[in-house]
Structures are given as structure tokens and as C-alpha cells.
Design brief:
Elements (H helix, E strand, L loop, with lengths): L7 H7 L12 E2 L5 H7 L7 E5 L5 H9 L2 E5 L5 H9 L5 E4 L8 H4 L7 E6 L5 H10 L6 E7 H7 L10 H9 E9 L4 E2 L6 E8 L10 H13 L5 H7 L7 H10 L13 H12 L2
The chain binds S-adenosylmethionine.
The site of S-adenosylmethionine (SAM) has 23 residues, from strand 1 and helix 3.
Length: about 280
């Protein structure tokens, strides 16, 4: 074991707990990284933290010491008694044995006063759906600080035209200012994952950066563009089964926007997708 590591392997053996790969259980054991996550998430004693997947509680105890309260959501019922031992004697941690994807956040967070910040070392098998859910319901949150696969972090902070640029990039820019904070090596976890990781922080915007008349239409256009990345934008949109625009409609708007008729969606910024959506929607 490396220096400054929590011995989670021995702890779990002592509790007769077997790691469940299907739940993405890679526990963060590196005491060089754990306090840094709490620091960079800006949690204060006035804040409530929503922690997704507290696991054995390595991060939970640090969050509980920094925050007013931690609301933890863990799917694996076998981890609940272990978590209770780790957090003892703290009384400001509420443990919920739930699947975050099936949890109604307004029920879970009802009655919370003050800012809520999400802090989590996310299970990698559901990174994108969890981030999508949190961003869609980001009116609850001040910030979201999460550990993700490095490759996902790069997609979140990608520039138009790069191969990492995609629907999730635009989605996160609509709700937040996303920023990659630092990388985390595989050796910081037990068991060691196959890929490198990174911490990303989303500062939630009070209102979207561009006024768009119909955000659902804009996201349908974005999804159509990136589902068929190799097609021109005009073909991708007019071929999409759930959209009702002809190729001529799209070409007409592209011309008004002074964009090339053969442009691909991956070249457009969020502002351009917002304009495209408003113009197509009002035709
Ligand atoms: N926070 C701990 C740490 O940093 O050591 C554990 C992180 S581990 C990468 C992911 C955790 O999420 C595991 O404890 C796993 O059981 C839990 N988990 C997996 N799927 C979940 C879900 N759908 N809802 C809630 N928790 C989940």
C-alpha cells in the first residue's frame, strides 16, 4: 500500500464484505485526494451536501465535518452498516438506501434550507445518466463536484470541432460552468479501476446563458446532430424521426445564420444551437 492511504481492503475483509463490480465500487482511499475534493467543492457549515454512493464513507466523514449536513444515497444495502460504523459518532449524516436514478430529488431534498452542493465519487457505469439527471434538476444545487472517468471529463470541457465535443458538452454548458479541477491516478482507489479519473466541478448558472424559446427542441436538435456526427447538420436534422423539419427548412436557416450548408453539428457552439432552434421553431 502507498503512503497516506486508508486501508479499505483490510477494513472490508474484516467486515466480510465482497466488492460488487456491477455497482462500480472503486473506493477512494488516497488521503492526498480526499480532503482536496472537499476543499475544492467549497462546502461550508451553512451547506447541505448530497453525496451519491458514499460507499465505505471515506469521503462522507470529511464532508460531514465540513458541512451542516450530508444526505447520502447508497444503493448497496450491505454497505449501510459499514457506513454507519465509519461515520460514528457524527449525527449530521442521513443515510438513504436508494438508487439515485430512481430517487425523486424533490422528496429527498424537501425541507432543506440553504445551499445544497452535490459531492460524489460517481459509480462509472452510470456517470452520464447521473450527471444528466443532476443538471436537469440543477435548480436544487449551487454546485456539483464529481469524480468521473478522465475521458468523460474531457467531453464535458471540450471545444467545438474536437472529437470529445458532444451533446453532454452542450448540455452541461446550458446549466452550468463546467471545469476540470485535477486528475486522479488509478492507484488512489481500491480496487484499482482500469482508467484514469478526474474531478469536475459544475457551478450552476442562475439562468441559462442564452434565452432559447424552446429548450426541449434545442436539445432534440443537438441530439440529432450528434447521433449522426458524420452527416451534415441539414441531413442529420431532416433525417431524424422525432423531428419534423425538411432539409430545405434547415438550409434556409443555415443561410440566414451565415453558416455553410454542409456544416456538421459538431462545429456549432451552444449559442448557435440556440439560434438555430429559435429560427427553426418559428418557421
Ligand atoms: N464514495 C465512495 C468512495 O469515494 O470511496 C464510493 C465511491 S464508488 C466509485 C461508487 C459508490 O456508488 C459505491 O458505493 C456504489 O455501491 C454506489 N452506487 C452504485 N450505483 C448507485 C446508484 N444507482 N445509486 C446510489 N449509489 C450507487
Amino acid at each position: 500500500m502507498r503512503k497516506n492511504q486508508i486501508n479499505t481492503a483490510d477494513y472490508l475483509r474484516g467486515q466480510d464484505f465482497h466488492i460488487k463490480k456491477k455497482y462500480g465500487q472503486n473506493f477512494l482511499t488516497d488521503m492526498n485526494i480526499l480532503p482536496r475534493i472537499v476543499e475544492e467543492s467549497d462546502v461550508t457549515k451553512d451547506d447541505t451536501v448530497l453525496e451519491i454512493g458514499p460507499g465505505t464513507g471515506n469521503l462522507t466523514v470529511l464532508l460531514a465535518d465540513a458541512a451542516k449536513k450530508v444526505i447520502a444515497v447508497e444503493i448497496d444495502k450491505e454497505l449501510i452498516p459499514i457506513l454507519r460504523v465509519t461515520i460514528f459518532p457524527r449525527e449530521n449524516v442521513e443515510i438513504n438506501n436508494l438508487d439515485i436514478m430512481k430517487t425523486d430529488l424533490s422528496d429527498l431534498l424537501s425541507g432543506v434550507e440553504g445551499n445544497i452542493r452535490v459531492v460524489a465519487n460517481l459509480p462509472y457505469y452510470i456517470t452520464t445518466p447521473v450527471i444528466t439527471k443532476l443538471l436537469e434538476e440543477s435548480h436544487f444545487f449551487k454546485s456539483i463536484t464529481v469524480m468521473v472517468q478522465k475521458e468523460v471529463a474531457e467531453r464535458l470541457a471540450a471545444e467545438p470541432g474536437s472529437k470529445e465535443y458532444g451533446a453532454i458538452t452542450l448540455f452541461s454548458q446550458y446549466y452550468s460552468v463546467p471545469k476540470i479541477l485535477f486528475s486522479v491516478p488509478k492507484e488512489s482507489f481500491y480496487p484499482m479501476p482500469k482508467v484514469e479519473s478526474a474531478i469536475v466541478r459544475f457551478d450552476i448558472l442562475e439562468k441559462p446563458p442564452y434565452d432559447v424559446k424552446n429548450s426541449a427542441l434545442m436539445f432534440d436538435l443537438i441530439r440529432a446532430a450528434f447521433n449522426e456526427r458524420r452527416k451534415t447538420l441539414a441531413n442529420a436534422i431532416s433525417d431524424a424521426g422525432n423531428l419534423n423539419f425538411s432539409k430545405a427548412d434547415v438550409l434556409d436557416v443555415l443561410e440566414k445564420m451565415r453558416l455553410s450548408p454542409t456544416i456538421r453539428g459538431e462545429r456549432l457552439s451552444l449559442e448557435e444551437f440556440a439560434n438555430l432552434s429559435d429560427m427553426l421553431g418559428s418557421n
